[in-house]
Design a protein that fits this description.
Length: about 375
């Protein structure tokens, strides 16, 4: 059976044995999306998300900026041109990483299992590096008061509090909660006036999730090292946001984790897990295999002018198309070139199909299938 005819995973993903702040947020946002993305689909260890070149180029730039931001922060945010800044560039493997990442992605795109046009990155490694340099120069503010000395990487949490007292600043501190299956890697822990501060380096825009993540990290330090941090700091390229820490709010964070983690793990034991349909369904990579998400996403796509549609095949029209009926009962003529038609799954009368990224024509009475369009077969029309 082809990937486009599989109705669900052939082996379901297990819940995380250890949770991170990111996995917790992702599962809480939509347990089914997390599960479907990480389950096995036939020959594929995970759902083979279809990559888009522009998004990949942005990802390469973002990852390089993220590494450099962390490297600079761990060295005390040195000034441009300084020896410490040059060392941070080396720590982050900044310039060499672009050529390597572009080559790796070009190879992966060429071998991607989902059919369509031969996607390739448009920008060269040099162009992506220049883009990253411009962004960094526009936003980076060296010498922030909150990050003043270099931090030493640590590989173990044993005696971590005493180690901080000696070193004054630590980086990449991996901590596990002593009683909950929750871990975190703290970008930087520093001692300021004998008080503990926790710093996380961010390249995106400020978000409430960043504060929540930092409170979870403060909880980890409190429970493992025994010291209550006085402050958590989100260090952005162009400034900081900081929040004081008290024991009562951290106890609430801990109680929240103790409540949520078993509930979310239990949700992932259902096959499929519960879905949380919403605005994100429009761009969800697994929407074609999620009935609640598809219903929301199809309507959002229609309002956005995008050619996502669920149709029941009513008649095959030779090599160049077929007739379908929408959920509202409207007849839709689906057309494509013969070369495209040979890539499609069998289109049997009465079958329900979900079409992703077609092109509407003639006031939505005709849907054109392009080389990048995909058609997923649905075993039966789902209950709405």
């Amino acid at each position: 059976m082809s990937f486009y005819e599989l109705q669900g995973p052939t082996a379901w993903a297990d819940p995380p044995s250890m949770w991170s702040s990111t996995s917790l947020d992702d599962v809480e946002a939509c347990p089914r999306r997390w599960q479907l993305l990480r389950s096995r689909w036939g020959d594929f260890d995970r759902f083979p998300v279809r990559p888009h070149p522009a998004a990949i180029e942005g990802q390469i730039v973002h990852e390089a900026l993220d590494r450099l931001t962390r490297a600079c922060g761990q060295r005390g945010n040195p000034a441009f041109g300084s020896a410490d800044f040059a060392a941070a560039l080396i720590d982050a493997d900044f310039f060499p990483s672009f050529a390597r990442s572009v080559a790796e992605w070009q190879s992966r795109l060429a071998a991607h299992p989902r059919p369509g046009p031969a996607f390739r990155l448009r920008a060269s490694a040099e162009e992506l590096a220049n883009r990253a340099v411009r962004m960094f120069r526009e936003q980076y503010k060296p010498g922030e008061d909150s990050v003043s000395q270099a931090a030493e990487p640590v590989s173990a949490a044993d005696g971590i509090g005493a180690l901080l007292r000696r070193k004054r600043a630590l980086s990449e501190v991996r901590l596990e909660h002593p009683t909950l299956p929750f871990i975190g890697v703290l970008d930087r822990v520093q001692l300021v006036s004998e008080s503990v501060e926790i710093v996380d380096f961010k390249t995106g825009r400020p978000s409430a999730k960043h504060h929540q993540q930092l409170l979870r990290y403060a909880l980890l330090w409190w429970r493992v090292a025994g010291d209550l941090p006085v402050r958590v700091i989100a260090q952005y390229l162009d400034g900081i946001e900081s929040w004081p820490v008290k024991d009562a709010p951290l106890a609430e964070v801990e109680a929240d984790l103790a409540t949520k983690l078993p509930v979310l793990a239990g949700a992932l034991l259902d096959h499929p897990a519960p879905a949380k349909a919403g605005a994100g369904c429009l761009v969800c990579p697994v929407r074609a295999r999620c009935d609640p998400g598809w219903a929301v996403g199809e309507e959002a796509a229609r309002l956005d002018g995008r050619g996502d549609a669920e149709l029941v095949v009513t008649a095959k029209a030779g090599e160049y198309g077929f007739l379908g009926r929408s959920g509202a009962g409207a007849e839709v003529a689906v057309t494509y070139d013969a070369a495209v038609g040979r890539l499609l799954p069998p289109l049997v009368d009465g079958r329900t199909v979900r079409i992703l990224e077609g092109v509407w024509k003639e006031r939505e009475s005709q849907l054109e299938i392009k080389t990048w369009t995909e058609i997923f077969v649905v075993a039966a029309a789902p209950a709405r």
